[in-house]
TrEMBL record:
Keywords: Acyltransferase, Cytoplasm, Lipid biosynthesis, Lipid metabolism, Phospholipid biosynthesis, Phospholipid metabolism, Transferase. The gene is plsX. GO terms for biological process: fatty acid biosynthetic process; phospholipid biosynthetic process. PANTHER family: FATTY ACID/PHOSPHOLIPID SYNTHESIS PROTEIN PLSX, PHOSPHATE ACYLTRANSFERASE. NCBIfam families: plsX. GO terms for cellular component: cytoplasm. Its EC number is 2.3.1.274. It catalyses: a fatty acyl-[ACP] + phosphate = an acyl phosphate + holo-[ACP]. Pathway: Lipid metabolism; phospholipid metabolism. The keyword Acyltransferase applies. It comes from Metabacillus arenae. Its main location: cytoplasm. This is Phosphate acyltransferase. GO terms for molecular function: phosphate:acyl-[acyl carrier protein] acyltransferase activity. It is found in: Cytoplasm.
Length: 328
């Protein structure tokens, strides 16, 4: 099992990337990693390891660059070379914490799309109050979608939830403005009927206020709606923790209370940290492509590698291809 990693992607690269790789190598005895980036900078944090290979390049795709243009022009960029490792069969999966649009472009045009999948979906696993989490797709790979695309998202999400997360007969929900069958716009109404007639465990419409309750294992929507929902959840969580921090440091008595509650607060923060589940998978491609968060630390990188390894081991992309082929 070999995974290609963009060593230069993200706010904390290459230090956090290399440290996450080292942790993964120490955890999984079957794992080999190819790090792509500036060798001199990578080696500052990397001791010799026969299971870690470094491919040197000085070229990087910056977070501010236009994705398609950057991928086309920067053929030697660390992210593009990473995707090429998968395309050429030298790696089973790849991970980057860099430019999201560029990674989606490299995934689509270098790694390649599965026949029968019209559009890939960007899909993080978000936390729930019960600690189990749910897969949310699409959160921005495509801002527009058709009913058949949401059906494909549901199929891919169900396969991932079953094969990687070990959930038997995953519950599939359709994000909507109400739970009634006839709610929503033409997209959700038509998607509802398709999902209802499928062999999936479709539980119906779900509202955004119920997402973190763990009402479904997989929730599907178009990328525009999904991205807004994702960023609303992120922003709300950050605001709540900010208010808690302010309240618990405002006086001596509150500071004493905070000291007593520190283990519980830490547990809540960990439970609500979606990097614990790995990165966002770009479903619909011929091999696992994982987008780690731009601010990923060592632990987030490790979890993204763990996720990519599990997807490759369980042949998620192969299973998606076979399932879609059977439906045609």
């Amino acid at each position: 099992m070999r995974i290609a990693v963009d060593a230069m992607g993200g706010d904390n690269a290459p230090k956090a990337i290399v440290e996450g790789v080292i942790k993964a190598i120490q955890t999984f005895s079957d794992l080999e990693v190819t790090l792509i980036g500036k060798e001199e900078e990578i080696n500052k944090y990397l001791s010799t390891n026969e299971r870690i290979t470094v491919i040197h390049t000085n070229e990087i795709i910056e977070a501010t660059e236009e994705p398609v243009r950057a991928v086309r022009r920067k053929k030697q960029a660390s992210m593009v070379l990473m995707a090429n490792e998968v395309k050429e069969g030298k790696a089973d999966a790849c991970i980057s914490a860099g430019n999201t649009g560029a990674l989606m472009t490299a995934g689509l045009f270098v790694v390649g799309r599965i026949n029968g999948i019209d559009r890939p979906a960007l899909s993080p696993t978000l936390p729930t109050l019960d600690g189990k989490g749910f897969l949310f797709l699409d959160v921005g790979a495509n801002v527009d979608a058709k009913p058949e695309h949401l059906m494909q998202y549901a199929i891919m999400g169900s396969i991932y939830a079953e094969k990687v997360r070990g959930i038997a007969n995953p519950r599939i929900g359709l994000l909507n403005v109400g739970t009634e069958d006839k709610k929503g716009n033409e997209l959700t109404k038509q998607a509802f009927e398709k999902l209802k007639q499928s062999n999936l465990n479709f539980i119906g419409n779900v509202e955004s206020r119920d997402l973190l309750e763990g009402i479904a294992d997989v929730v599907v929507t178009d990328g525009f709606t999904g991205n807004i929902a994702l960023k609303t959840i992120e922003g709300t969580a950050l605001s709540v923790f900010s208010m808690l921090k302010e309240a618990l440091t405002s006086s001596l008595s509150s500071k004493l209370a905070a000291a007593v509650l520190k283990p519980q607060l830490k547990e809540i923060k960990t439970k609500m940290d979606y990097s614990e589940y790995g990165g966002a998978s770009l479903f619909g491609l011929t091999a696992p492509v994982i987008k780690a968060h731009g601010s990923s630390d060592q632990n987030a990188v490790y979890n993204a590698i763990r996720q990519a390894r599990e997807m490759a081991l369980h042949q998620v992309s192969v299973k998606i291809r076979e399932t879609v082929a059977e439906m045609e």
